[in-house]
Each structure stands twice: as structure tokens, then as C-alpha cells.
Amino acid sequence: MAVQCILTITVFQLAIIGCCAVSGIIWLKQKQEFVQLFSIPQFATLQKENLAKRRALEMRDMKNEVVRAIYYEEKNMVMFYDNDTKVNGICGDLWYLLADYLNFTFIPMKTTNRDFGERLKNGSYTGVIGMLMRNEAQAIMRSGFFINRMDVLDYTTALWKSQFHIYVQPEWLFDNTWVLTLFSPKTWYFVVFLFIILSLVGYFLQKIPMDYKPEKEVSVNFSLGDNFFYSFAMMCGQGYIPDAFHNKFKILSLSKSIFAWLILLAFSSHLIYRMTNREPTLPFKDVDTLFSNTKKILLAFRGSIIYYYLHNKYGGDVSGKNLLERVRFIEIAEDMHNTICDNMKKYAMFEISDRFSALNRNDCPLEALGNYNETYISFGVQKNYPYKKTIDYALIKFIEVGLMDALADRWLNIRLENIEQIQFKMIDLHQVYLIFLILCWGGLISFTILILENIIYYYEMKDVQRRRNFGYT
């Protein structure tokens, strides 16, 4: 009935209907408004028929199907055993779960070629992709999403997301300026400002004449320097403070004492933690500063994107030849991890995060730096593989029920108990040298002032003696 409401369909109207169909709405002349396309019974029936045909095509029974999946040995990812006829690891277990769920025969294939391959002039591919194009295998057990390979590969539903980082051992350093950094700059500004104001107020208040004082009481006037000196002594809670200074203005003196006590209490509340705390500091910020500011050697897996990045950036530059000598490309990722863990001060490592979690050792504390690329990890299958959608549906189901999280907890080193606990370290001279430096500078300044006072006193006495010798009073 709704279709009959459209009386005359011109070319222009047909174009409008096509656009509306894409957006899921259509103009209903009877109601003079746009309605959902599939709310019209004829279109709803047509949609159901098309969906049923497509699902019947996609959800084929994979019984008696043989799926050959290829990959190389990689710890906790794909590990071959039983004469290389079976696999385990996070990806290996996942393929067996797919085989049980979809009723197909899974045959793992081990290769020693760790390069995914590159396109040759004749259009063919080398490496693992070339084996898929020659129909030697139907799938790759683990692969990242790469746009430049989508003309020869299809990718299944994403399993997880991974980033490429540079991993390096952090240097745990003390904050040598803990005396100044215990308080924020604004707090220090207020402390110094109040110290100056209170000293000035005390100095100017004593200038006010007070007629009500008894005549026998002798008024002691302190200089501006005395006010600063004694106020500082009160705020530090140290030094001798004359009674006359306390009694001059008791309320002001009491306010200074309370203020100083609260400041010292706040300062000492975090003092021990700040003195003993070590903060991780990375020795460089990126690849360029790694080469310029450190002598570390960068380790990289030969099949990773850093290989092409470095060759494109430094390979054709004469000045970059020495930089390329500081990069070691290693064929096996596990060997790369063992190399850096055996000498963490000498090496840095370019690695993808999921493989780092799979291969990282508990005794090898490395920190990630930068994010040079990110990709989704999935399975690679032949182009136009008929069972790709079927595998996608199964993987989505595994993710929904939590199987992926369970496999990650089992095979990837991401558990909280693996985090290394920071041990308490004794306070050494390097942490408190600022205190001794202040004391040394104070002693040096005091000694300098003492020498100057003696020189001035010597010349004043010499001038007095000269006047007496000439008969001046």
C-alpha cells in the first residue's frame, strides 16, 4: 500500500529514493514525511530474504574443511611441539578453539622464514604472503593490519590492539632539589612573602611612639636587619631570640611562632618520603635523541617497520651511515629480548607491545617510550577466502564470552604480581649534599663578613690613632 502512494517516479525522484535508501529512510507520500525504509512491509520482506541468502552463503558448515595456517616459532605466541605438528601459545590455542567450534581440521605449518614478504616486479610476493598466494596455506596464525597488504590479504576480526614502542631500562634517580621541591612554587612564594611582610611590620611598628609606657622601661629598637634575622630564626625554630624582641609585640611574635610551627610541620610531613623517593627517568625521548644523546645500540626485529623507517631516513644520507651502525637487526625476536635483558645499559629495543608482553622476562624491567605506530592484531587469510566471515563470527563470540581475556591472562606477561616492588634504599651523601652545601656557603659568607669587619675596624682604629698623633680630638 505504501509503495502505491508514490504515483509518478521521475529520474529525479529515483535519485532521491536511492539516496534515502542508503540512509535507511524513504518519503511516504501518504503521510507526507520520511519513514524508515524497512518499516514498509515490502522492503522488510526483501531485506529478510537478502539477509537469509547472505547468511546462508557466509555461515557454511566448515566440516571436512582443511585449514592450513602458517607461522614461525615465537614464545607464548605460537610454539610448535610434537615434531612441529601441534602448536600452543595464545594464537595456537585460539586456532584450536576455532577448529573445535567450527568443525574444521586445523593443520599448523612451521616456517623458518620470518619475513612476511615483499612484492616482486612480476607481481608475486616472497615470504609468508607468497605461500598464501601459491595456496600452500590458507591463513597466517598472527598478523597486524597493514593497508599496503590488503590487495593480497584479508584480515579477520581484530583480536587486540598493539603499539610499537622503544623499550629501554629507566634510570632510577633521586630528586637532589627535594629541599625546594617539597613545596610548590606558589607555596614558597607565599612563605617568603609572609616572612618579608612580618619582618617589615615588626620594624615599622616599633617606630610608633607609645606614651603610656612607664618611664623606667627602656625601649629597645631593633634594626631592619635584626627583624629579618630574628624572624628567620623563629621560622626555623632555631637560634637565640632576645626576650626584648619577643616582648616587643607579643601577638606578632606569637603569630610568627605559630606560623613557623605549621610551616615546619607541613614541610616535615613529606620530608622522609621525598628524600628517599626514586623516580624513573628515561635517557632519551625518541630515535633522534637516542642517537645524539646516548651511546645505546638500538635492537630491532628485521621484519618490523623500523627497518624500513631507518633505511628511508638514514640509508641514503652520508651522515647517517654511522647511525645505521648503531642499529642491530635481529632475525629472532626472542634473541633480541635476551640480548637487551643481558645488558640493559648498552641496548634499547624497538618492539610491538603484545610481543613484548609475551617475551618479556620478570627480571628485565623495561619501560616503553613513544608510540611510533599502532595496529590491530588478527589473522591473515587468503584474499576472498570464503570462510572469513564464519571465522569473524566465531572470534566475536570468543571475545564476548571472555575467552580472549582468559588467553591473554595465561600467555601474556601483564599480571599485576609481575610488577617489581621498589625496595627502600639508604639515604646517601648524594641526596643530602644540598644541606651541607648550604652550611658550607653560610660558613664561607660568615668568614668573609668577619674578615671585612676586621679590616674596617683596623682602618678606623688607624685613623683614630693618626688624629691623636696630630692633636685632633
Short account of what is shown:
This protein is of the alpha/beta class. It is 47% helix and 18% strand.
Describe what you observe in this structure:
- The protein contains 18 helices and 15 strands.
- By secondary structure, the chain is an alpha/beta fold.
- Among the domains are: 3-58, no CATH class; 183-269; 430-473.
Task: Name the features.
15 strands, nine-stranded mixed β-sheet, single chain, 18 helices, 18% strand, two-stranded antiparallel ribbon, 473 residues, elongated, alpha/beta
What secondary-structure arrangement, pairings included, does this model have?
Blueprint: H1 11-23, E1 25-28, E2 33-36, H2 41-58, E3 66-71, E4 79-81, E5 86-88, H3 90-102, E6 105-110, H4 127-133, E7 139-144, E8 153-155, E9 160-168, E10 171-174, H5 178-181, H6 185-205, H7 224-236, H8 243-248, H9 250-269, H10 271-276, E11 278-281, H11 287-293, E12 297-301, H12 305-314, H13 321-324, E13 327-330, H14 333-342, E14 347-352, H15 353-359, E15 367-382, H16 388-401, H17 403-411, H18 429-469
Parallel strand pairs: 3-6, 3-7, 12-13, 12-14
Antiparallel strand pairs: 1-2, 4-5, 7-15, 8-15, 9-14, 9-15, 10-11
Helix pairs in contact: 6-7, 7-9
